[in-house]
Amino acid sequence: MIWGRKLDRDDELASLRELAEGVHGVEALFDEALRLTWISPSIGRLTAQAPADCIAAGDFFAFLLHESDRDFCRRMARQVLDTGLPQDFELRLVARDGRVVWVAMHWRRRAGGLRLSAEDIQARKEAEYALLETVAELRRAQALREHYLLRSNDERQRLSALLNLIRLGILFIDHDRRVLYHNRAMLEIWAYPPATELVGSREAVLKRQAAHVLADPEAYFGHIDAVVGGRESASEEHEFVFADGRVVTDRSAVVQGGEQGRGIGRVWIYEDVSEARRTSRQLVELAVRDELTGLYNRRRFHEELERLLADAERRHSAVGLLAFDLDGFKPINDSFGHQAGDEVLVGLARALGRIVRRNELLFRIGGDEFALLVPDASIDELLELSHRLLETVAASRFCFEGDEVGVTASVGIARFPANARRGDALVAAADEALYRSKSEGRNRATVSGRMGA
Ligand SMILES: Nc1nc2c(ncn2[C@@H]2O[C@H](COP(=O)(O)OP(=O)(O)OP(=O)(O)O)[C@@H](O)[C@H]2O)c(=O)[nH]1
Where is the GGDEF domain positioned along the sequence (predicted)? Predict the structure, then answer.
């Protein structure tokens, strides 16, 4: 029987060897001390080591296995020896040139030792590594995207807070003429209730509101069509007026970006300039008004004179100039003080303001000198006006320190084009006539005798 068993084992070994020579994977046999007793030639293909060298090395584990896997593999092999239960696991061999080769090992008990079948899984491991690398890459990309998304959300929040604080109205319209963004100031300027949400609304919705609140909606829509239809990427500042009197400006620009740089829409910026316009009007008024009497001053006199003469030249009409100066004004200053003189000037300006017509312009040229410009006036009308003026001045009475005082005026009359064709010559002609009134006794009007030149 013993012989018979030995014969069986030898036969088995022989046939196993024969089989193993031809198979692709590695087959190996170990004795009870875990010494390698035989290994198939295919180990050469895997590790470039000859079977005889593997056996001669003594310690299979130290000779062929990756350093990190040796202890584990020894432990498992011993376990198979002890328990008789087969074990499958994957680990790394190290080839002669130092290359690492992954193999799937199958250890099982056999009479007198262990049998190992190992299969090359390097290609699968590489595929797995590549897959893991791709997954890791994807995760990194996703993490990066999430990071940027978070940052862009933060950025958007910051921008939106900023845009809601500024006083400029901002409206962003996309290519389909829908609202993409607006800030709070835009709602205020266009008189929407504060919580109105316009994002997604069509331009037609905005036009309905505009028709409601603008002084001249049609003119404004014409402007919008011209800007949008024009080729300009940025529009000039345009001023328009609301029905409630507010003055607003708009500007717009195409926002670049999107596919092939065709622009992603148009941004409109609105500014309520009512206050600024009011202030600049007031400043202009201040510059052309006499501070004491509130009448137009010398500067405005010259502007209006030139304007009226140009107009009369075009229309072949006349312009009358009444230059007048108070008589006996200085003694009021001297007797009752400058303040009293001021009151006389203010009182007379008020009284004279009541006798001039809408188209006649009254000026304080300086000191106690005044002027009246009268468009389209005949000489008779100018004389008649001069007498009313003289009467008004003479009839004005003032009371200082219990004394009633008054002044008179001397008037010089000149006409365009009869006495002069230019502004400075007309002023000189009127002054000349005024001087004559003074020298001939005051409180009178004299018509210029100059010939127009
Ligand atoms: N209170 C006051 N006096 C002024 C002002 N501007 C000029 N005057 C004074 O007005 C006076 C003008 O002088 P005149 O024209 O010689 O005075 P007048 O007494 O009317 O003399 P005639 O024109 O020759 O009749 C001067 O005493 C100036 O100081 C002003 O704004 N307020």
Answer: 317-450
Prior bond of 194 cis (ω within 30°): no
pLDDT band at 452 (very low <50, low <70, confident <90, very high): confident
Give the CATH number of domain 166-277; options: 3.40.50.620, 3.30.450.20, 3.40.50.410, 3.40.50.261: 3.30.450.20
Beta bridge partners of 238: 250
What pTM was computed for the model? 0.55
Q: Which residue from 343, 346, 368 has its CB within 8 A of the most atoms of ligand 1, so it is best to mutate?
A: 368
Sign of the torsion angle spanned by Cα atoms 225, 231, 234, 235: negative
Residue nearest to atom 22 of ligand 1 (CA): 327
Q: Which protein residue's CA is at the shortest distance from atom 7 of ligand 1?
A: 367
pLDDT at residue 117 greater than cutoff 60: yes
- Residue 258 has a pLDDT of 63
* Spatial separation of the C-alpha atoms in residues 160 and 170, rounded to whole Å: 11
Question: 64 CA distance to ligand 1 centroid (A)?
Answer: 125
Ligand 1 pocket residues where CB is under 6 Å: 292, 325-330, 333, 338, 341-342, 345, 367-368
CA–CA distances in Å: residue 171 to residues 100, 184, 191, 193, 236: 64, 10, 14, 16, 16
CA of 368 to the centre of ligand 1 (A): 5
What's the CATH number of domain 2-120, 1.10.1370.30, 2.60.40.10, 2.10.109.10, 3.30.450.20? 3.30.450.20
Q: What is the pLDDT of residues 231-263, one digit of tens each?
A: 778 889 999 999 999 999 999 999 887 666 667
What's the rounded mean pLDDT across residues 354-383? 96
Q: Answer yes or no: are the C-beta atoms of 388 and 374 closer than 8 Å.
A: no
Whose C-alpha lies nearest to ligand 1, atom 24?
A: 327
Question: Cα(367) to centroid of ligand 1, in Å?
Answer: 6
For residue 327, the ligand 1 atom closest to its alpha carbon is 25
